[in-house]
């Protein structure tokens, strides 16, 4: 179990990430690619991604074991600002930090608790560690190629899921402050003030010491939360975005079949009209079905029906929030509104 200890200052400094983290999503998706579970969400994504992967991923496989510790330097805090910024941060990693974290990786069982270099460290890993930053270009090349195949085609969908999660947690924060926000997190996270308990593969305590905590929802994180190994790095907790209403990742044009595209076009055809334009705009930064009905001046049943059609069209994401459902506009929906493409 992971226990994160808060002070009053830490509670005041709890914050939600503003967007998906490019490197966390990429690294965690690599776990999902090798995991046979969650076929409903990831089965088709795995098939499509493997079909596009025609490059080398041996370095990624070496640095990201199927279970357990992987180096903190793979997920710099700059990842929340976008892919290019994240890669620049990774490119600038100090050689001594790279060697230290790779030594932990090579420590075998218990490495996550601080073990040193194991006698059985794989020769390729030892070569990578002893080479310092010399091998970084190879790692960066593999990361770029893998990201393009596994994450980039689905980025709009990932953004929509994280926006829905942010809207739900933002409501909790407005309703009851940081206490309510922490209590509203998914079931594997339990707020027992002043400690946040998390299901975790090892027993560990993290003391925030006034630094606060960044909550980073992730689409590709599943079952357990993830945090950095080094307690001196800025505290972050990556946790699964609520999955009970999550949909499978929908890719860009390269990832869609003709059947899916034709289905989307038919659904978008249903959308055109004054009432649904009003409903889409009424969602704003997030709305429950009853709020949507009130804002748009339609019945509850009508609001629910319109939201369903727009969800099928990829314009709206729906997430359960307590006893209600919360609708948020996806990037596609927002682009449609800004472009004035919904006509009366």
Provide the descriptors you would attach to this structure in a database record.
14 helices; alpha/beta; disordered C terminus; 344 residues; globular; 4-stranded mixed beta sheet
Kindly describe this structure:
The longest helix has 29 residues. A hairpin with an 8-residue loop joins β7 and β8. The protein starts with a strand and ends in a 5-residue tail after the last helix. Helix content is 47%, strand content 13%. The C terminus is likely disordered. By secondary structure, the protein is of the alpha/beta class. It contains 14 helices and 11 strands. The strands form 3 sheets. A 4-stranded mixed β-sheet has the order 3-4-1-5.
- Name the overall outline: globular
Please give the alpha-carbon distance between the first and last residues: 54 Å
- With strands numbered from the N-terminus, the spatial order across the biggest sheet is 3-4-1-5
Amount of beta strand: 5-15%
User: Count of helices?
Assistant: 14
Low-confidence spans: pLDDT under 50, at least 5 residues? 108-119, 253-262, 264-269, 340-344
Run of helices and strands: EHEHHHHHHHHEEEEEEHHEHHEEH
């Amino acid at each position: 179990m992971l226990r994160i200890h808060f002070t009053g200052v830490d509670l005041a400094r709890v914050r939600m990430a503003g967007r998906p983290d490019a490197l966390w999503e990429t690294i965690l998706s690599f776990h999902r690619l090798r995991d046979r579970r969650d076929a409903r969400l990831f089965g088709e994504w795995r098939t499509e991604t493997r079909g596009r992967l025609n490059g080398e991923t041996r370095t990624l496989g070496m640095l990201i074991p199927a279970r357990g510790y992987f180096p903190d330097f793979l997920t710099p805090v700059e990842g929340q600002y976008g892919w290019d910024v994240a890669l620049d941060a990774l490119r600038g990693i100090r050689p001594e930090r790279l060697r230290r974290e790779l030594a932990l990786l090579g420590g075998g069982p218990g490495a996550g608790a601080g073990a040193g270099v194991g006698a059985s460290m794989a020769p390729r890993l030892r070569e990578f560690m002893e080479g310092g930053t010399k091998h970084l270009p190879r790692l960066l090349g593999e990361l770029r190629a893998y990201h393009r195949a596994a994450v980039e085609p689905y980025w709009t969908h990932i953004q929509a899921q994280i926006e829905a999660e942010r809207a739900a947690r933002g409501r909790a924060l407005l309703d009851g402050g940081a206490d309510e926000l922490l209590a509203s997190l998914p079931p594997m996270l339990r707020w027992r003030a002043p400690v946040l308990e998390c299901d975790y593969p090892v027993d560990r305590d993290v003391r925030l010491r006034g630094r606060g905590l960044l909550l980073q929802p992730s689409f590709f994180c599943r079952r357990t939360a993830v945090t950095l190994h080094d307690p001196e790095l800025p505290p972050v907790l990556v946790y699964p975005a609520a999955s009970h209403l999550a949909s499978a990742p929908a890719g860009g044009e390269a990832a869609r079949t003709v059947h899916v595209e034709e289905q989307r076009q038919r659904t978008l055809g249903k959308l055109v009209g004054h009432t649904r334009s009003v409903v889409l705009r009424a969602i704003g930064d997030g709305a429950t079905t009853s709020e949507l009905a009130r804002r748009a001046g339609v019945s509850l049943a009508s609001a629910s029906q319109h939201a369903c059609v727009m969800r099928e069209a990829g314009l709206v994401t729906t997430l359960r929030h307590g006893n209600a459902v919360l609708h948020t506009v996806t990037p596609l929906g927002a682009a449609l509104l800004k472009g004035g493409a919904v006509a009366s």
